[in-house]
Amino acid sequence: MYEKVRGYIRENQMLTQGDTVLAGVSGGADSLAMLAMLAEYKKEIKFDIHVIHVNHGIRGEEADGDQRLVEEICREWEIPCDVYRYDVPSLALKWKVGTEEAGRMARKKAFEEEGRKLGKLSGEAGKEHGLKIALAHNRNDLAETMLHNLCRGSGLRGLCSMRPVNGKIIRPVLCLDRKEIEHYLKERGISYAVDSSNLEDAYTRNRIRHKILPLLETDVNPQAIAHMAETARVAAQAEEYLTRKGRELAEKYLCREAVLLSEKESFNLKKSFSLEESFLLGESFFEAEPILISYGVMEIFFRLSGKRKDFTAFHIRQVQSLFGMQTGKRTELPYGLMAKREYGGVRIYRMPPDGHKTEQEAEWEIIIPGTTVCSFGELSAKIFSYQKEKIPQKKYTKWFDYDKIEGNLTVRTRRTGDFLIVNQDGGHKKLNRYMIDEKIPREERDHIPLVAADSQVLWMIGGRINERYKITPGTRRVLELKYQGGYYHE
User: Fold this and answer.
1) ω into residue 369 within 30 of 0, thus cis?
2) Can you give the C-alpha Rg of the chain in angstroms?
3) What is the spatial distance between Cα 34 and Cα 40, in angstroms, rounded to a whole number?
4) How far apart are alpha carbons 307 and 298 in whole angstroms?
5) Is the pLDDT of residue 361 over 80?
6) Residue 251 in contact with residue 281, Cβ under 8 Å?
7) How far apart are CA 479 and CA 401, in angstroms?
8) DSSP β-bridge partners for residue 54
9) Residues 6+ away with beta carbon under 8 Å from 76
10) pLDDT for res 357
């Protein structure tokens, strides 16, 4: 069984030497099998494992017993373990979501907090690693998710939403089914906890697990789960291809209108402009293959809002139906987007509700390495080893000490609480105060794109960068960010 997982890790390039793995371990069979196999694989290549256990505050003594089991195993196997406790029922009320969703959000919060802790360690001399989050989903989980999403009408993306690698997330035991995992643990004498809530049929996923999947295996095909896993793999390839083709189609209809914001000198720029993006979909767009029209519209939604969630086939049909209507007809879309029938076709753009730009709410996670395309422009990122090269003195190309960066980087505009570190002693200055001191006109402040990690601004694009992340003689890896679009000078 281990050899199967070992091959799966290598085939999907999940881990490299020097990585730090945050392993989510509940105490159940899946997570303990994953932890055991990661510990075994660690003997082959060097990487760090940190266990994260989340106590959801739901099952009382049973949950406390799961926590003790995880802590005892981590002590025995000499693996660092951090426990996070949340009152999930209270959080569900506070966040106005279901208990399952609140639990998922709490787990995400725990991983983010642990990542920040370890991010502080990454600045130590000689400490270089990538951060990975290991989740213990197996083939049965994948099959359950496929069926659940299929019944909800989520489309092709929902059939392949659980992937071996998705950004920082890895799923080392996704190649195993539940029976294989239980057999592996029995062979090695590893005890595991059983979550009593998984035995109840109160949740939709449990009903799929207990009733539908067993029926498929006994009455349809004993290999149903394995075949569904293969279907998910092929669906993922199709999804990636169609997404790329949809993006290429949409790019042909991109419009950028430069809007002068101020005649005054500001920000050390002679003139300051904002590039307002929209897409004008002409007749040729709607003559493309129907599947590419759908993917093209969805990519436009993502480009303008930074989100995919809450956009559905219904919204795509709304855009398509506008093309057959008279000029002036319009429809509102999620996240402040608007589609409007114009003489040249259907224009999709962002609205400024109540005088405030929707870009204040939108943010895009920066792809590292790679190119992030958003309504502010394009941000190219690459990483390289620092060999004492001369630091470029360019307004739209900046270097950062990559090993000091904590958490994910995003590009967005300013928000309440944003700050910069302005000197080597770690002195903070609120971004709003800094903009005032730099005499940046009030009407421009909400339009300036920022590179940020949570509330900490790393780069006010076109202006200064955060002192903490500047290149020093001790820098080992450099993150280069190169910006095009949005703000520029003549």
Assistant:
1) yes
2) 25
3) 10
4) 10
5) no
6) no
7) 6
8) 84
9) none
10) 42
Residue 423: name the closest of 459, 473, 467, 455 by CA. 467
pTM of the model: 0.62
Determine the Cα–Cα distance for residues 415 and 234; give it in Å rounded to an integer: 41
pLDDT band of 375, cuts 50, 70, 90: low
CA distances from 229 to 146, 166, 188, 395 (A): 9, 16, 26, 48
Contacts of 437 (CB under 8 A, 6+ apart): 429
Q: What pLDDT does residue 128 have? A: 36
Looking at every residue in the chain, the average pLDDT score rounds to 83
Q: What are phi and psi of 193, to 5 degrees?
A: -90, 155
Q: Which residue has the tokens 């981590």?
A: 74
Answer left, alpha or beta for residue 449, where phi above 0 means left and psi between -120 and 50 means alpha.
beta
Residue at token pair 């989520």: 154
Cβ–Cβ contacts within 10 Å for residue 312, how many?
14
Q: Calculate the CA dihedral of residues 61, 67, 72, 74 and round it to 10 degrees.
A: 170
C-alpha to C-alpha distance for 301 and 473, rounded to whole angstroms: 43
* Separation CA 405–CA 415 (nearest Å): 20
